[in-house]
Amino acid sequence: MRIVFPDGFFWGTSTAAAQVETAGDHPWCGLKARDGHEFRHTTDHEKRRSEDADLILRFGTVYRCSVDWSRLQPEPMARFDKKVVGEYVNFFEKLQKGGVKLMFVLHHFAHPNWFEARGGWTNEDNIPFFLDFVRQCLKHFEPYVRYWNTFNEPNVYAMNAFLLGNFPPGKKHRYGLANRVLDNMGRAHEIARVMIGEKSDAPVGISLNTAHFEGTGLAGSLVAAFVRWWFMTRAARPFRKCDFWGLSYYAFVPFAPFPLDVLNNRAELEKRHIPHDNLWGYKPEGLGPVLRRFAKKYGKPIVITENGLCTDDPQQRIRAIRDYLKVCREAIDDGVNLLGYIHWSTWDNFEWHLGPTFRFGLVRVDFRTMERSMTPAGLFYEKVVRENGLEV
Ligand code: BGC
Questions:
Q1: Which residue positions in the chain have pLDDT lower than 70?
Q2: pLDDT, position 162
Q3: Looking at ligand 1, which atom is closest to the CA of residue 351?
Q4: How far is the CA of 171 from the centre of ligand 1 (A)?
Q5: Which residue among 15, 94, 246, 247 has the highest number of C-beta atoms inside a 10 angstrom radius?
């Protein structure tokens, strides 16, 4: 069956500065990842911008990315470093000339060490530092931006940094702090949104991570219901003043009653015949109810800001793109105002605390030489983008 997307539907891919550039002075720098790699040289993107731009141009009209705040602003309230601004502007110019505009993410899991040293997002007094960063981003990068994402996945950030201990500052079980971080990010988002609105016509939203949580047994169902509420309702609340909802979706997480994932419970997932990628349970149908729920609850347009699969196998990635796009098309048929789809990720990159061998790229990166090579999944996605549709 052939599915076609509405006229004006947009396509794109995404990366994040910390995951693709050599680490600046931010809290991830030097961290030892689970696969043994050190978080420092990620993908040498800053040395390969021209080549990477050519890849990005093959995948749609929107490129979702961020900039390294710590390189732009080595000290609080300092004027952006001119050289670094120039580096980004040249790159964004090249994309713009090729017909690609940005979805500009202001915070994607990384901020300067000086910001972290002052308490990071747990400290409300830090909000003005972020707003100064936003002001200068507007000044230099606004002409290249089609959409703004103030925050990438505040729920994933707060959960990993303050509940699970996976992200710096590595705190565990600090539920109060996690909520405080969400609320501070929400305050920053609200002010940033007004500031952006004064200088830019581009719509402003966040990207919230969504997932399918399902419990087995009474205990599992109760835990799943709580996590579902915290992750997709409580965490969304501080950001409801937005022009669109950016939603990302990757995972099906069964609760039995503890969450089952591939790194900790592969055997259990397999025993239960739950399909999975290299990280999580796989259930593309789970995205449908999420889209309908957000559309109904908030009445705002939606963009898929991230969606992808952790695998080394391009054929598996192609199947996932097919499955997910089918779900997206069905949601549109049901009246969801879905504006576009952004795939994660353009090329393999440094998967945070896990390391670069957890691959998501349409383009494969050889982490020894940093060479890029197009994969069959990349060619497949390029064709989907060109035809605004596909066979499913
Ligand atoms: C994040 C990305 C990450 C991806 C895959 C999202 O939660 O925004 O930075 O690489 O998921 O785990």
A1: none
A2: 98
A3: 10
A4: 19
A5: 246
